[in-house]
Amino acid sequence: MDHPSHRDTARGDAPPAAYLASLIDAALEAHQAGRLDTAEPIYREALALAPKHTKALHYFGVLQHQRGNHDLAAGLLSQALKIDRSDAACWSNRGLVAASLGHLDEAMICYDQALQLKPDFADARNNFGVALQAQGALDEAIEQYRFALAVNPAAVDVHLNLGTALAKQRKFDEALACYERALALDPASAEAHFNAGNAHNAKGEVAAAIVSFERALALRADYAEAHVNLGTAIGKRGDYAGAEAHYRRAVALKPNPTNLVCLGGSLGAQGRLDEEEGFYRHALSLDPNYADAHQNLAWLLLKRGDYTRGWAEFALRWRKSDYEALAVPGVAEWRGEPLSGRRLLIVGEQGFGDHFQFLRFARVLEQRGATVDVCVREPLLPLVARTPGVRRAYSGKPQGEYDFWVPMLSIPCCIGMQLSTIPASVPYLFADKARVKTWRKRVGVAGGGRRKVGLVWAGSPTFGNDLYRSMALPDLAALASVQHVDWYALQKGPAHAQLAHAPSVFGAHDFTAHLNNFEDTAALIMNLDLVISVDTGVAHLAGALGKPVWLLLPANSDWRWLEARSDTPWYPRMRLFRQTLLGDWTTVVAEVADALREGE
User: Fold this and answer.
1) What's the mean pLDDT in 550-579?
2) Rounded Cα–Cα distance for residues 73 and 94 (Å)
3) Domain encompassing residue 236
């Protein structure tokens, strides 16, 4: 958070009239002590006696700025500068007012004028840095902050601003050093602890972030932003009830859309769907264009099976920066117009699992008459290129001329898809035949009625709900005793190391070192009888390949698996096993073991 200075209180020569001088002194004394209600009528009396008194105009303008009356403040300060253009402090304060009005170019002109008059004016340097930072000129802002600190090394606000700018450049260790210097100067700075928490969080140091946010709140209990960020950090550890408590405090302090959506999300993560909807609706009543509220509301509606309203909300999910990063310049976004004879580009978005799930729509759009190209991340290209309906697949910047482009996950909204009309013909992804044959030789042929079962027990640890979405391999120990099953580990990533301490049957057929890409994974899956997985991209891949999949779901499962069902309209050969208690896999694993024994 930026902390521009409001302490420009340089005094000019006192006017000759003793009474006027005493008024100005009294106003300044009250003003500097923070007694604005006392200072204001004294300034007014002084200006009634001397309407062109520059000091009275200047600091009465500062007072109005502090009250949020920025237009009035701008007029007062401008009057003062018309009379005396040599007051560096007045120029700097006029810049602050311009910045508050959103006139950053004007603000920087004012700061530059102040610095021409007084090059070692630390406050003006700091304020200039704030304006530069607001325009994204981080290197220039950092230079101004360093100039300011060279003049005044004890300026706590400048250390905080420098840290914030460095953090935006992802120089988190340097930013933390700035916050430590700020705290050495002012141990009671809640903002320094708050900013340090943000830096720790960005580094993935969740425990340290929590400590910093807690320290900020110990110093300022009504620090709404610290409550929100602490709630988010606690939520990353899976403590959604703890997160809820902090979000509720933040909403009580500042019921803005961001805080309302955070609170709703924490309720949804606890499975309290009926409660969460109201907070998204409240957020949208305050800001009808608030993207995060639309997205969370869409997920809720889709999970309930309300596809008409859910997909309509999902179409409004875009933050401006996210949309611009995806949009194809000069090409209209497709919103359901006729496609016969049209060239359409599908642009991939979100995770690999989402791609595997939504590539089915290429065939649907081709059947509507479109020539369909797909732009996705490079690892997916071979699989995507073999998808029915796709003419060409590529990665990077869009190539070629198109009539329309469409974000991959917007297609259901554009075609008016309902639960009953999900295109669920599988397979629609196909493994490379040569690789399938190569993997068949590696896997061999199971004898004696043994089933070849692939196993995935964890997803990416960076996923928001991974603590509950993933499990530890020991949670699956009950499956090791099931007879006539050969287990094939499909697990990649850090969780693969758990095989070293697991029942030996789980590691007996571990080919993961040879799974170099999704092509290999798909080819291996085609040689298996069944895939058992938590909610990951591999589960979607297996489902799209048309293989039987048993999906293990947490109690707060994703929108696409609906509520309470043991099947899914997205994948006809997939069976869902659901937790009844968040975090407890015991019942789920027991059900899977029983199903394996029954030969289902």
Assistant:
1) 95
2) 8
3) 222-317
